């Protein structure tokens, strides 16, 4: 039994199939259904539509299928064995939307027929089409009635059924720029469904923002395809713009002396209205405000009403009478609207007036040093013309000296007088001066007509400083001994100058660079003398530049040379060359100390040097005579320069505790007996050969409030004649009881105070051990006195420089005195001031004095800087110290070298000065003085408030009045 199954394809669910009557069937062969309906989308191929199946109950043979009708030339095809019905080409819904196909089946003589209805489904495959590519309408500009209002409807159609009546309209600009899109959005809108274009606001046709036609682009969109068309909205013009000139003021020019009708300018106005719209932009020109000639009463200018060409209405304008004219022109359009403009007419120069010199006769002065071809005088002109080209000349063979001068144009309407040859006042022919005739013409080559003017120039020749003085002789060589005394003339020079007057007056001088020590002088007659004595040891030869300077401006200088050779005089004794300090260890036998070199600055070739002699001067202490030996080495061992050396030896053991420094006065003499005494200092090196004993020390700490740094207050002191034995000692707290505000270095004994220590007194106890002497736990007490000062007192500090006392010396008691030098000094200062004075700072450094002598073989003394503060701020401490420093120095035996006056004082750093003098120490802030001119507050008020302190100086008497003393 054959069975066939019909499987429909591409049939959406829910589609209803309709049976049709079978026609011409034979036997029992039957399709499963007599008719089928299938759906297919247009524009798709090939497509399997369905598979046919037929069945029969009489035969088991194979069923064969065929296309019986409706194949349309191969549009449909059936496979005989499988029954697959296929669409071979794509379909177009818009041409035909359904097809009917008849299919057949055969099996062993049996036949069956069926009907297949193929329906085409529509797709959106056609774009919309506008009814025409260009839509056009016209509106009147500035019409604001019934806004917004429709002005035009656009329409498009679409062949697709699926989107019929679903088109969406939009409008945009042909130019897609942002500015154009914004302008269109402000003025036009379109109904998306109906295609009606609406005007939103009135349109302006005229520039600058208006336009005569608005080009729009409308689009129709069917959901997939878009069509475009162009819309022109033409704006009809109305006469709403008056004519306007592009430039409110027009500058024109016309030459003078021109006939009537000469062209002046062409003015053109602009009208923003449409020139094609009636008479809206048709312009006519006229002169609203003309210039009237005084002589005739007629207008000077005319204008052509159609072209705007302006011409002269009269003949022969004169620039020298009137240089400028102003007229007002009017442009009128066809509607009667007007625009005005201004025309400024400048009359051009025709060079019709001859030039003239401002003077008929010129009286001038000219210096003989004027450079050729350089102008030295200006000859001014007058000429009302502006188009001048002046030509100048010196008239040949007219006057005296005409061949030496010329006149050239300055380029700004004047003539420049120049010399063409050098002038010479010393020439008798020229000294009397010059007189020349000059001419000017404003026409090239015309020296005879009316365009020529003449003038006479008289010149007086002035002498110039054009000659350098002549100094004779050019060089002088002389020789003088160094003991030649000031007074006699060394040499004489003579200077001459050809110039006259002050230019020939000569002044003599010596170039300071050739005489840096100011040894020589020259008088007004050119005679050279000594100002101070010669010194061959300073300079063996002087090369002086003698100057002769005249009185001209600028002055001229002549130079000569004076060479003074200085011969030696035996005026220097031998001396020991500067050396490091001499040292020897105490309590040892005879020792070699040093070998010292002797020198003498005199000329040894004249016998003013070696052989030298040396012996010790009679010392105050005869022990020194027995303890030392100083001898000279043999001359043949002294070296190639022929000098000598001194050998210093000790003869006995020396004890440092009896004197740390020993002085050796030596008398040195040269071969001719010139002698001098020089003292050597010998320092004994300490040995730890003495036991120590308990001692006490007092430390005074002066600090500025707000200082947050810890400070060292000195070494814990025990009584011990030795002072180089720190390395043999160790320190510790007494019974191990340390103080929280102080720290001790157990190796050096140095004591440091914490920044947290408050003002007041601190009593500290320590123990010291020296194993080299078998000593341990020797008691040492230290009292620390701490006081703080306000920062304001720094400005009141006064620095003084003390000579011949080191900072340690000031704190050390001298033998036989209960007070230290510093205590004596402070007592004397307080008594002199009449009030309390305290120490603010003592610097632990020294300032060396620099010697101003050329030959100084003695080390200069050092200075110590001490800062003082008066107890009362009204005391002018610096002035009082400066006034009485000599008396204070005598009373205290502490020599004040200088007093700082009028400077500014500030803190140098957060560190402090520490001066340690064994039984006492002084800790003070570091101050620094600045010179006048710095910015700081005044130290104290200089105006006294009472007469009690006797503020008057030099014997003055204080008188108390209502407003103060």
TrEMBL record:
Q: What is the protein name stated in its UniProt record?
A: Cadherin domain-containing protein
The biological process GO terms on file are: animal organ development; cell migration; developmental growth; establishment of planar polarity; establishment or maintenance of cell polarity; homophilic cell adhesion via plasma membrane adhesion molecules; neuron projection development
Q: Name one GO cellular component term.
A: catenin complex
* Cadherin domain ranges (all copies): 32-130, 131-245, 246-357, 358-471, 472-576, 584-696
Tell me the keywords, alphabetical order: Calcium, Cell adhesion, Disulfide bond, EGF-like domain, Glycoprotein, Membrane, Repeat, Transmembrane, Transmembrane helix
The places in or outside the cell where this protein is found are: Membrane
Topology relative to the membrane: Single-pass membrane protein
Q: A Gene Ontology MF term for this entry?
A: beta-catenin binding
Q: Name one Pfam family in it.
A: Cadherin
List the PROSITE patterns hit by this protein, alphabetically.
CADHERIN_1, CADHERIN_2
């Amino acid at each position: 039994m054959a069975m066939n199954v019909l499987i429909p394809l591409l049939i959406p669910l829910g589609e209803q199939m309709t049976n049709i009557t079978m026609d011409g069937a034979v036997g029992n062969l039957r399709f499963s259904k007599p008719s089928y309906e299938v759906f297919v989308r247009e524009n798709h191929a090939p497509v399997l539509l369905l598979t046919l199946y037929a069945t029969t109950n009489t035969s088991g043979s194979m069923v064969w299928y065929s296309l019986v009708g409706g194949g349309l030339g191969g549009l449909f095809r059936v496979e005989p064995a499988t029954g697959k019905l296929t669409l071979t080409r794509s379909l177009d819904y818009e041409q035909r939307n359904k097809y009917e196909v008849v299919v057949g089946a055969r099996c062993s003589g049996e036949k069956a027929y069926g009907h297949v209805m193929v329906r085409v489904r529509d797709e959106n495959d056609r774009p919309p089409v506008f009814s025409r590519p260009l839509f056009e309408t016209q509106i009147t500009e500035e019409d604001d009635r019934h806004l917004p209002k429709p002005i035009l409807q656009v329409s498009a159609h679409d062949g697709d059924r699926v989107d019929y009546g679903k088109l969406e309209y939009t409008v945009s600009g042909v130019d897609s720029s942002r500015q154009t899109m914004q302008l269109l959005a402000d003025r036009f809108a379109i109904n998306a469904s109906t295609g009606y274009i609406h005007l939103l606001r009135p349109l302006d046709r005229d520039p600058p923002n208006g336009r005569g036609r608005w080009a729009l682009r409308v689009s129709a969109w069917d959901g997939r395809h878009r069509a475009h068309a162009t819309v022109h909205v033409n704006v009809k013009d109305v006469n709403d713009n008056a004519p306007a000139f592009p430039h409110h003021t027009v500058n024109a020019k016309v030459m003078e002396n021109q006939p009537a009708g000469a062209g002046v300018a062409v003015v053109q106005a602009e009208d923003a209205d449409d020139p094609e719209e009636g008479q809206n932009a048709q312009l006519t020109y006229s002169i609203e405000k003309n210039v009237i000639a005084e002589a005739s009463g007629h207008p000077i200018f005319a204008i052509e009403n159609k072209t705007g060409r302006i011409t002269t209405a009269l003949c022969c304008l004169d620039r020298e009478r009137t240089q400028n004219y102003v007229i007002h022109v009017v442009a009128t359009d066809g509607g009667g609207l007007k625009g005005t403009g201004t025309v400024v007419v400048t009359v051009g120069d025709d060079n019709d007036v001859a030039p003239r010199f401002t003077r008929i006769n010129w009286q001038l002065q000219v210096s003989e040093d004027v450079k050729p071809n350089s102008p030295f005088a200006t000859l001014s002109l007058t000429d009302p013309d502006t188009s001048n080209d002046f030509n100048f000349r010196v008239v040949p063979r007219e006057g005296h000296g005409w061949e030496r001068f010329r006149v050239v144009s300055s380029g700004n309407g004047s003539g420049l007088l120049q010399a063409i040859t050098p002038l010479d006042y010393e020439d008798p022919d020229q000294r009397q001066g010059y007189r020349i005739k000059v001419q000017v013409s404003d026409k090239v080559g015309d020296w005879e007509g009316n365009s020529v003017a003449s003038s006479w120039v008289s010149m007086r020749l002035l002498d110039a400083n054009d000659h350098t003085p002549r100094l004779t002789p050019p060089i002088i060589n002389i020789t003088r001994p160094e003991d030649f005394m000031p007074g006699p003339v060394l040499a004489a020079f003579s200077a001459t100058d050809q110039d006259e007057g002050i230019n020939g007056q000569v002044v003599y001088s010596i170039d300071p660079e050739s005489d840096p020590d100011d040894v020589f002088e020259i008088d007004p007659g050119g005679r050279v003398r000594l100002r101070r004595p010669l010194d061959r040891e300073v300079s063996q030869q002087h090369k002086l530049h003698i100057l002769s300077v005249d009185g001209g401006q600028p002055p001229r200088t002549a130079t000569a040379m004076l060479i003074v050779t200085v011969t030696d005089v035996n005026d220097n004794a031998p001396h020991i060359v500067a050396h490091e300090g001499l040292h020897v260890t105490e309590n040892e036998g005879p020792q070699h100390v040093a070998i010292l070199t002797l020198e003498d600055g005199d000329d040894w070739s004249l016998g003013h040097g070696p052989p030298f002699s040396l012996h010790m001067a009679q010392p105050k202490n005869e022990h020194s005579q027995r303890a030392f030996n100083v001898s000279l080495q043999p001359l043949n061992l002294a070296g190639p320069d022929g000098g000598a050396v001194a050998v210093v030896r000790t003869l006995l053991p020396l004890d440092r505790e009896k004197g740390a420094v020993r002085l050796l006065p030596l008398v040195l003499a040269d071969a001719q007996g010139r002698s001098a005494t020089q003292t050597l200092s010998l320092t004994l090196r300490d040995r730890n050969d003495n036991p120590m004993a308990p001692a006490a020390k007092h430390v005074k700490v002066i600090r500025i409030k707000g200082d947050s740094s810890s400070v060292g207050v000195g070494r814990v002191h025990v009584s011990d004649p030795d002072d180089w034995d720190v390395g043999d000692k160790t320190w510790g707290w007494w019974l191990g009881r340390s103080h929280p505000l102080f720290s001790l270095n157990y190796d050096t004994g140095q004591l440091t105070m914490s920044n947290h220590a408050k003002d007041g007194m601190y009593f500290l106890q320590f123990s010291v051990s020296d194993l080299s002497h078998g000593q341990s736990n020797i008691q040492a007490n230290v009292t620390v006195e701490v006081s703080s000062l306000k920062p304001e007192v720094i400005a009141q500090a006064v620095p003084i420089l003390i000579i011949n006392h080191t900072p340690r010396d000031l704190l050390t008691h001298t033998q036989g005195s209960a007070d230290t030098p510093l205590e004596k000094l402070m007592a004397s200062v307080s008594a002199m001031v009449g009030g309390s004075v305290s120490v603010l700072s003592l610097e632990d450094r020294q300032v060396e004095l620099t010697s101003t002598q050329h030959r100084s073989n003695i080390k200069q003394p050092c200075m110590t800087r001490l800062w003082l503060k008066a107890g009362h701020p009204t005391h002018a401490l610096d002035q009082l110290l400066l006034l009485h420093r000599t008396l204070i120095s005598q009373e205290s035996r502490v020599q004040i070298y200088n007093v700082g006056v009028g400077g500014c004082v500030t803190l140098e750093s957060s560190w402090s000065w520490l001066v340690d003098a064994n039984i006492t120490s002084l800790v003070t802030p570091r101050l620094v003085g600045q010179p006048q001119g710095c910015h700081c507050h005044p130290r104290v008020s200089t105006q006294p408030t009472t007469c009690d302190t006797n503020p008057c100086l030099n014997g003055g008497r204080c008188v108390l009045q209502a407003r103060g003393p």
